[in-house]
Structure formats: C-alpha cells, structure tokens
Amino acid sequence: MREISQMWGEYLDGREVGADDDFFALGGNSLTGIKIIDRVARDYGVQLSVRDFYLAQTPARVAGLIEKGRAVT
Questions:
Q1: For the chain, what is the largest distance between any 2 Cα atoms, rounded to a whole number of angstroms?
Q2: Are 1 and 9 in contact (CB under 8 A)?
Q3: Residues 41-65: pLDDT tens digits?
Q4: Are the beta carbons of 56 and 62 closer than 8 angstroms?
Q5: How many CB atoms lie within 10 A of CB 12?
C-alpha cells in the first residue's frame, strides 16, 4: 500500500499521499488517473478499469484491487 501511495505522489506533484487520501481531493484528474492505471499495469501486471480506479479513490482501496487482480492471474 505504501508503494501505491508513493506512486500517486509522483503523479500528484510530489506531494505526500496517505493510504486513505482521496484521489480527487488531492487534485487528481482523468489524465493523471490514466497514467496511474498504466503504471499499475506495467509494474504489477494488473489491468484496472477506469471505473474501478475512480470508484476506489484511495491508495488503500487501489492496493486491494491490485491484490485481487494478482490473485486471479
């Protein structure tokens, strides 16, 4: 989960991102979301849908989606 928070920080102007911080409250937008989704696919081999990513909204929930995705593959 810490890795996901750090990744988000890289795409959100280097700010500190906590496990339960909201993507949109941090200034996230659709372009940033797509970049993070692409990075997750590269780094973790898990394809997240845009819808699932936006509904998850926090690094902790996205980490859960990644774990579920890795368990399936």
A1: 33
A2: no
A3: 999 999 999 999 999 999 999 999 9
A4: yes
A5: 18
Nearest to 25 by CA among 12, 42, 43, 10: 12
26, two tokens: 């941090």
64: its two tokens: 């859960």
Q: Can you give the pLDDT at residue 72?
A: 76
For 20-45, the pLDDT digits (tens) are 999 999 999 999 999 999 999 999 99
* pTM (whole model) above 0.85: yes
The CB density around residue 51, as the number of other CB atoms within 10 Å, is 8
